[in-house]
Amino acid sequence: MSVKLIRQYTVFIPNIPGALHKFVELFANEGVNIIGIASEIRDDSGVVRIAVDSERKVSHVLTGAGFTTIETFLISVEMPDKPGQLLRLARILGEHSINITTVYGTSFGGASGRLLINVSDTDRALEVLKIELAAK
Predict the structure, then answer these.
(1) Which of 18, 60, 81, 83 could be disulfide-bonded to 113 (CB atoms 3.0-4.6 Å)?
(2) Whole-number Å distance between alpha carbons of 30 and 61
(3) Side-chain half-sphere of 1: how many Cα atoms within 13 Å?
(4) Which of 51, 100, 45 has its CA nearest to residue 72?
(5) Distance (Å, rounded) from C-alpha 39 to C-alpha 47?
(6) Is the predicted pLDDT of residue 123 greater than 90, yes or no?
(7) Cβ-count burial 116-135 (b if 16+ within 10 Å, e if not)
(8) How far apart are alpha carbons 58 and 30 in whole angstroms?
(9) Is the pLDDT of residue 119 over 70?
(10) Is the dihedral of CA 52, 57, 59, 61 positive or negative?
(11) Where in the chain does DSSP place strands (E)?
(12) What residue numbers bound the domain in which 24 lies?
């Protein structure tokens, strides 16, 4: 089981053909691997969140291309792909009074999955998850 801190970029994009292409192309051109993406589109615009597995900051590249961006940190949790894993994670954080503000994730085809979470207290959540998930 792996628990680590990663970067997330949140941008506002127009709801038009090719907008996502222009945005993700910037990451590809910088050699930055996208490990998670989520979007919320309403009417003529939307919000896209991209999680990256990179130590390098790319916010300057995004703003240079005209995107308004917010850089935050997420916790990436790789765990077995089986029922109850999100429940387990939510229980651990809830018992430590840590609020989950954003969550998204995926399965890797049966063996493992990755959950990406933003929480009210990142440092404490990282510490708690490393201890609690290793203990069980």
Answers:
(1) 81
(2) 9
(3) 17
(4) 51
(5) 6
(6) yes
(7) bbbbeebeebbebbbebbee
(8) 8
(9) yes
(10) negative
(11) 2-14, 34-42, 45-52, 69-80, 100-107, 112-119
(12) 1-136
How large is the average pLDDT for residues 84-111? 91
Side chain identity at 9, as an amino acid letter? Answer: Y
What CATH number is given to the structural domain containing 63? Answer: 3.30.2130.10
Tokens 């969140």 sit at which residue?
49
Question: Domains in the chain: how many in total?
Answer: 1
The answer to whether the CB of 93 falls within 8 A of the CB of 119 is: yes
> What pLDDT, in 10s, does the model give residues 14-62?
999 999 999 999 999 999 999 999 999 888 889 999 999 878 888 999 9
Here the tokens at position 120 are: 């009210």
Place of tokens 């222009």: 22
HSE value, Cβ hemisphere, 13 Å, CA-based, for 53: 11
Neighbouring residues of 89: CB distance < 8 A, sequence distance ≥ 6: 77, 79, 115, 117, 129
| CB atoms inside a 10 Å sphere around CB 49 | 20
Q: What is the mean pLDDT of residues 86-102?
A: 95
